[in-house]
Design brief:
It is a single chain. With 298 residues, this protein is α+β, with helices and mostly antiparallel strands. It is 32% helix and 35% strand. It has 8 helices and 18 strands.
Length: 298
């Protein structure tokens, strides 16, 4: 763009033919747009000669600055939109929290289709945002998980971390006691520098700062249905579960330790549970306070 013609236009001395020539230049068209905007908005008073000097300098550097003073209502709308966006982002990033009271359980569905049964007097939280890439749950108390395959699924507790890909498992952490049971798939349990990998039918519990592996023969946690269920499990393992559920002492007398049991016993009635176990196997039992004796029939 010719500087001479621009100077004439700025000084109001340009002829119609020269003006038509200037209009062929896209840079000058931008000047016209700026001029139109400036005439519609309030600007601070400025010395005319100083303004022309600045404009010439901008032209020589081939730079165009376009300044538009937005109406107040546009500013208000924009500010409100920003606040709403920030508020939505903040709220959506908050964790989902679930709590159960005594004698209450709750079934939860997670964003990926996995399910969690939360036992009584327990707390669970997780974030929905970015769930597929960060499947992490914080647990206080007890919960049974059926996890869909996907990225690593983590359960964080006070005493340790449980990591799986897709499986069924139970986690119990009361602060004083920590136990993880695997019912399907593989489950990794980390506690400080200790790591144990569990396969189905195995569990691990924390004792004196160490993870202790053990067996678990039920097909699912008894607290979900208030029953302990077994499939072709040795009798002594069944009686161990009975002791654990009812906090009793069990003594065996002359029974065949190779007997195997398939079935379920209730977790709410000890006498009914004993009948459910002994009758199919042809055994007798006696119950005195917290002591149970299992014996073979004469």
């Amino acid at each position: 763009m010719k500087q001479e013609l621009l100077d004439k236009w700025l000084n109001g001395e340009i002829s119609p033919s020269e003006m038509e020539e200037l209009k062929q230049n896209p840079v000058f068209l931008e000047y016209l747009k700026i001029d139109a905007v400036v005439k519609q908005i309030e600007t601070p008073s400025q010395d005319a000669s100083e303004g022309l000097k600045e404009l010439k300098e901008e032209n020589s550097q081939h730079q165009i600055s376009r300044v538009i003073k937005l109406p107040l209502y546009i500013k208000v709308v924009a500010a409100a939109a920003i606040i709403l966006f920030i508020g939505y982002f903040y709220v959506s990033s908050l964790p989902e929290n679930y709590n159960t009271r005594l004698a209450q359980t709750q079934l939860l569905k997670l964003p990926d289709g996995s399910s969690v049964m939360l036992n009584e007097d327990s707390h669970l939280s997780f974030r929905k945002t970015n769930w597929d890439d960060n499947r992490t749950i914080t647990l206080e108390g007890e919960a049974y998980f059926e996890v869909e395959e996907g990225t690593v699924f983590n359960v964080l507790t006070t005493n340790g971390k449980v990591s799986v890909l897709g499986t069924k498992f139970n986690v119990y952490d009361s602060g004083n006691y920590f136990e993880v049971v695997c019912f399907e798939g593989l489950v990794g349990v980390t506690q400080l520098d200790n790591y144990v990998e569990l396969s189905p039918g195995n569990k691990v519990y924390l004792k004196n700062g160490m993870l202790i592996p053990d067996k678990k023969f039920t097909t699912q946690p008894g607290w979900i249905t208030n029953e302990s269920t077994f499939k072709n499990v040795q009798i002594l393992a069944v009686l161990d579960e009975l002791k654990s559920v009812y906090s009793i002492n069990v003594i065996t007398e002359n029974i065949d330790v190779d007997l195997r049991y398939t079935g379920s016993f209730t977790n709410r009635d000890l006498d009914a549970a004993l009948q459910t176990i002994t009758l199919p196997l042809g055994l007798n039992y006696t119950l005195e306070s917290k002591n149970v004796t299992i014996s073979a029939k004469d």
